[in-house]
Structure formats: structure tokens, C-alpha cells
Write a structure and sequence with these properties.
Number of helices: 7
Number of domains: 1
Radius of gyration: 18 Å
Bound molecules: nicotinamide-adenine-dinucleotide, magnesium ion
Structural class: alpha/beta
Strand order of the largest sheet: 3-2-1-4-5-6-7
Distance between the termini: 39 Å
Strand content: 5-15%
Order of helices and strands: EHEHEHEHEHEHHE
CATH topology: Rossmann fold
CATH class: Alpha Beta
CATH architecture: 3-Layer(aba) Sandwich
Largest sheet: 7 strands, parallel
């Protein structure tokens, strides 16, 4: 029997959100409504059987949705996150194990080069290899006036969002086989930068260019590289300074589909791009925005 068809306007929460400030990094389990990362709503079908994946920022939001979907598709999954986010990470571990797969938790800060390089080797050792690398961790802090943007924030945003990608990829090339897949998370901000996200949007532009160039460099090894460009997705990043609190109630409501996206709505694309079904797909930007066009 075919699944009931659903209306994208009403498939997920489409009301206004309550303002709900948290310090960064925010804890997903404390959000209202709790983002849907596919714990119940994603169904796998063996598309990644036997694969081994490392997902940065895998405790919450988009990375959690990818990690859970990968496990439901038959992959063992290691996630990286900040130590403060342990309670979110434990929920992901439980979801991966409930899908019958191995979960590896590796907390630590991607601003630390030594940690970041070691993360890749620790993940590969614990998983017994590495086929899929999802570079998804990111920080976003809105600042209205460039004069108030501190050097510390600019450096942190660049180090976490893009510089750490060079370190992880350099180490991951020890393991990724032909058929391996690297995914990065860019943003619609790469194409349409907001006035209050001058540091963040610039890193997203860099991620898009990095991903396309890396695809060209790694093609001869049979390693594909693609990037996903989300629009407004209901995740912890947004409530702890990614948006001004005044923007939270109507977050996502100006998109064509008139609501914020849920992380699980990105999971099928992260699965596809990591899988053999995407064997002729590399160097691409996949936008999932609720309607904004990435160009
Ligand atoms: P999220 O807060 O759930 O995930 C971001 C994760 O980044 C955190 O969970 C944290 O573990 C990790 N992180 C942050 N600083 C870190 C550090 N110093 N060391 C290690 N890990 C660190 O939010 P999300 O929205 O799911 O974000 C995932 C990715 O999606 C980010 O790259 C973000 O820029 C991107 N994105 C999000 C949206 C959106 O609307 N939510 C839109 C476009 C792009
Ligand atoms: Mg988190």
C-alpha cells in the first residue's frame, strides 16, 4: 500500500515559534517544539549497509538527522560535538543503537587543530574504516553592526565553519576509499548573505567554493564531494544567537512553503549524496530552502 500523500505546507509545524533564548551551544532537547530529526519519522531501506560515517555536529539539528538516517540505512556512525552537548549526543547514540548500528561519541572542539586531526583517526579506528565524511558543524552569531563584530568571533566562525574542514579532509584521505563521499553543509547564506551575518555568510561562501574545488581534486580517486545548502531549518543554532530573538516567532514563514524546515527533511539528501545512487553526482550544491533559489 502506498504511503498517504502529505501537503508540504502542513506536514510539519507551521505556526509561530515562542522566543526561547539559550546560551550557545543550545541544547536541542530543551527546544519547543523539539526539532524532528527522524527519530520516528525517517524509515531506512538499506541504502548504506555496512558503511562507516563520521558526522560533525551530529548531536543535534541537521547533523543529528543525517546521523540517524545513516544508521537507519545500515551504517555505523561516529559523531563529534561539544562536551556541553553530551545530553543531546546521548539521545543520538540511543537512536543509532536502536537502529541496530554502532554509535561512537567523540566530543571535542573543532577550534583545536590537534583534536580535530585526531578525531578523524579515532573515528576510523573505532568504526574500522571511514566511507562517509559529513562536515556539518557550524557556529552562527548575528551581529547587526560590523563595528561590533569582534576579532574573536570572526576567527572562531572561520575556524569552526571552514578551516577545520581542511584539517579533517587532510586526515580522512588516509581512509576514504574509491566510492567514498564527502558532504559539507553550506547555506543559502552563501548565495544570499544577510546583513547581520557578515562572518557566517562569508564562511558559507568559502564552503561552497571549497567543496566544488575539492570535488575536482578528488575525482581521480573516485571520491565524490557535494555540499548541501539549507534555508531556515528549526535547530538549536537559530535560538542561541543565529537569529535575533525578535526573528524567532516568524522564522521560516517568508519562504514559499511558509514555514521553517525540520532537520529530517534534509536527511534524504544526505543519504542520497553518500550512497552509490549518487555515483554520477559530484561538485554540486543541493539546496533545501523551502523555496529560495540558490544561484
Ligand atoms: P546545530 O546547532 O544543531 O548544529 C551545529 C553543531 O555545530 C552543534 O551541535 C555543535 O555540535 C557543532 N559545533 C559548534 N561549534 C563547535 C565547535 N567549536 N567544535 C565542535 N563542534 C561545534 O544547528 P544546525 O542548524 O543543525 O547546524 C548544522 C549546520 O547547518 C551548520 O553548518 C549550519 O551553519 C548549517 N545551516 C543551518 C541552517 C539552519 O537554518 N538551521 C541553515 C543553513 C545552514
Ligand atoms: Mg548541538
Amino acid at each position: 500500500m502506498s504511503e498517504k500523500i502529505s501537503n508540504p505546507l502542513t506536514k510539519y509545524y507551521n505556526g509561530k515559534f515562542e522566543k526561547q533564548p539559550q546560551e550557545a551551544p543550545a541544547i536541542q532537547g530543551k527546544m519547543q517544539p523539539v526539532p524532528d530529526c527522524g527519530e520516528e519519522s525517517y524509515t531506512g531501506s538499506g541504502k548504506l549497509t555496512g558503511r562507516k560515517a563520521l558526522v560533525t555536529g551530529g548531536d543535534s539539528g541537521i547533523g543529528r538527522a543525517a546521523a540517524i538516517a545513516y544508521a537507519k540505512e545500515g551504517a555505523d556512525v561516529a559523531i563529534n560535538y561539544l562536551p556541553f552537548e553530551e545530553e543531546d549526543a546521548q539521545e543520538v547514540k540511543a537512536a543509532i543503537e536502536a537502529a541496530g548500528q554502532k554509535a561512537v561519541l567523540i566530543p571535542g572542539d573543532l577550534r583545536d587543530e590537534d583534536f580535530t586531526r585526531k578525531l578523524v583517526h579515532d573515528a576510523a579506528a573505532a568504526l574500522g574504516g571511514l566511507d562517509i565524511l559529513v562536515l556539518n558543524a557550524g557556529m552562527q552569531q548575528a551581529v547587526q553592526d560590523i563595528k561590533d563584530l569582534t576579532t574573536e568571533q570572526i576567527k572562531d566562525t572561520f575556524t569552526i565553519n571552514i578551516i577545520s574542514m581542511y584539517w579533517t579532509v587532510q586526515e580522512a584521505l588516509d581512509y576514504l576509499p574509491a566510492g567514498g563521499s564527502i558532504l559539507t553543509t553550506t547555506s543559502i547564506q552563501s548565495a544570499e548573505p544577510s546583513a547581520q551575518l557578515l562572518d557566517y555568510a562569508a564562511t558559507k561562501g568559502a564552503i561552497t567554493s571549497f567543496s566544488k574545488g575539492l570535488a575536482a581534486q578528488l575525482s581521480e580517486k573516485g571520491i565524490r564531494v557535494n555540499t548541501v545548502a539549507p534555508g531556515p531549518i528549526w535547530t538549536p543554532l537559530q535560538i542561541c544567537g543565529g537569529q535575533p530573538q525578535s526573528a524567532i516567532p516568524e522564522f521560516g514563514q517568508n519562504e514559499l512553503l511558509k514555514r521553517a524546515g525540520q532537520p529530517v527533511e534534509l536527511a534524504p539528501v544526505y543519504v542520497f549524496l553518500a550512497s552509490d545512487e549518487a555515483s554520477y553526482v559530484t561538485g554540486q550544491v543541493y539546496s533545501i530552502t523551502g523555496g529560495s533559489f540558490f544561484a
